[in-house]
Specification:
The protein has 275 residues and is α/β, with parallel strands linked by helices. Helix content is 40%, strand content 20%. Helix 6 runs parallel beside helix 7. The two termini are 14 Å apart. The N terminus is likely disordered.
């Protein structure tokens, strides 16, 4: 299957998922008419979405899988999902960090990939509450044969705090550290994005820490693949109008793009021009 066909399949499945979530369920015959594809194609798409755990197949169609708003997957479980999308998102987001700037990265698998792309930006000061993100920069600091610091290597500040299943440090210690700082740009990973709930997470302490990150940033850039759209965690921590840019992937449906464009200044669809 060509890259173009793969893209079409991903976009079609994103449309199907958006329809399932919006209507609470769809029938195969409705999807074949709307998408102008065969019954077999729709069933393959539903099989793929069911394997991802986002829909449940029922006789003649599919319904959404209602994930508990308090469920927080671990880092390893999330890191294998949407890997190509995360790479495209990270590459586009890294271009928004200027040399010598102060940047903050929240916890998450997308910000972890982003950290690897930021290694090429010289003289950054990086503040993060992610153990994984800090490890990326620390590992790259000493790459010369004599063990000397790499020229232009980032200066990294890791907040303290209590560790979450996604390896973020949260709680009063992290909050206190963040409150006293100011960032040129915050790169923020999220559990869920929606018009009604804004940005949300299943973890109450992480929500509070993320609020402080948002307040301390001059510019807020959310990095989130299309599967985060329509997901709502237990606690909201920011409205969409508090976000300057959302960097996502071509799987985000046209309907979702239109809704997002109404509520935030900048929507960047990474990888779309290359497709």
């Amino acid at each position: 299957m060509s890259d173009h066909q793969n893209l079409l399949a991903e976009q079609r499945r994103a449309l199907i998922l958006d329809e399932v979530r919006r209507r609470g369920g769809v029938r195969v015959n409705e999807l074949t008419r709307r998408l102008n594809v065969s019954d077999m194609t729709v069933r393959r798409d539903l099989d793929a979405l069911a394997r991802q755990g986002v829909v449940a197949k029922v006789h003649g169609g599919a319904v959404p899988v209602a994930e508990a708003s308090t469920h927080e997957p671990g880092f390893e479980a999330k890191s294998s999902l949407e890997q190509n999308a995360k790479e495209d998102i990270a590459r586009a987001a890294a271009a928004m960090a200027g040399p010598g700037s102060a940047v903050a990265l929240s916890g998450g698998t997308t910000t972890y990939v982003l950290a690897q792309h930021l290694l090429d930006v010289p003289d950054l000061t990086v503040v993060t509450n992610s153990v994984r993100v800090a490890d990326v920069f620390h590992a790259a600091q000493h790459t010369a044969p004599d063990g000397a610091p790499r020229p232009g290597a980032a200066t990294v500040v890791l907040t303290g705090g209590v560790r979450t299943p996604s390896d973020a440090l949260v709680g009063p210690v992290a909050d206190q550290a963040i409150r006293s700082l100011h960032f040129d740009v915050l790169f923020l990973g999220v559990h869920g994005v929606s018009v009604e709930a804004g940005l949300s997470t299943p973890n109450l302490a992480e929500a509070e820490t993320n609020r402080h990150l948002v307040r301390s940033a001059r510019r807020v850039v959310v990095v989130a693949d299309h599967t985060k759209w329509g997901t709502v965690g237990l606690s909201s921590f920011a409205r969409l109008d508090e976000v300057d840019h959302l960097v996502t992937d071509p799987g985000l449906s046209p309907r979702a793009r239109a809704e997002m464009a109404e509520h935030l200044p900048g929507l960047i669809v990474a990888g779309e021009d290359e497709a």
